[in-house]
Amino acid sequence: xxxxxxxxxxxxxxxxxxxxxxxxxxxxxxxxxxxxxxxxxxxxxxxxxxxxxxxxxxxxxxxxxxxxxxxxxxxxxxxxxxxxxxxxxxxxxxxxxxxxxxxxxxxxxxxxxxxxxxxxxxxxxxxxxxxxxxxxxxxxxxxxxxxxxxxxxxxxxxxxxxxxxxxxxxxxxxxxxxxxxxxxxxxxxxxxxxxxxxxxxxxxxxxxxxxxxxxxxxxxxxxxxxxxxxxxxxxxxxxxxxxxxxxxxxxxxxxxxxxxxxxxxxxxxxxxxxxxxxxxxxxxxxxxxxxxxxxxxxxxxxxxxxxxxxxxxxxxxxxxxxxxxxxxxxxxxxxxxxxxxxxxxxxxxxxxxxxxxxxxxxxxxxxxxxx
Length: 371
Description:
- The longest helix has 19 residues.
- 37% of the residues lie in helices and 23% in strands.
- Strand 18 and strand 19 form a beta hairpin.
- The two termini are 44 Å apart.
- The chain is of the alpha+beta class.
- It has a 5-stranded antiparallel β-sheet, with helices on both faces.
């Protein structure tokens, strides 16, 4: 079991309160014993796929530790209880949605939820041939009053019968007795399409919009796609903060942070930094470029030792760029500029040339956002 997942389970078990629900009790015990397949992991939430007595379950543990998250859990309905309620409500309107759900709050902050595992293809694995079913399904969900301000492709599933099913209803809204308002529908479309890169939005996203607009009104596709692009830049900027916290892939150290999972290929290459603050800034910016799928080396760690502050990246078997590679370097710079970045006073020494002849940003100490 991942060390962070183990910490969450141990924290819940050490709390001393056992679930009253027999299924939740069994699933927690199985998870503590190392059973199950990890689905999602953050500092506060663990999501597992577990086989139990011939049935497959999705099992969630929510155990926030940051003070503002715990306070928020006391001031409003806990997220997993809210999600269970939404699952039951939507299941009454939408027969394709399973209504068997188990949820229990162990204390003001810690909750458990289990529902049957849903088989199908998640939104991060859709291709163009799924666009019509997704467009129809999304329009139908909106007609039922469903919406999700935190929607992403991974939160939707297309089952084997072609039904579109929301997987995470913790932040969802159900507008009783009426369809979702037009403004809310637009927001959902922007969030969904913003979860894909430019090529996917242009191909799959445009096809989904074509089907959706035959059933429900929305602004022109070009406007929705532009808003989705802007949202993607914003959400990936927020997500880049994860590289500075304890998550599935990163672990803070005494003086910095290091990558512990999903390591990029290549030998470690170290760059000196002026101070720890600048090393941290470049570390996060380079991780953001990685999330944006832009040409830059992957980050490994930043910190400080007896030699001073430093940043380490993974350097594959590329060659160093030369002045004769200006065309490839300019192509890389334009790709960065399109998403709001520039490399100040750049030189060929800051880049590498990969096996395909493309320039890759290696030394990002002069990288900054466009004002």
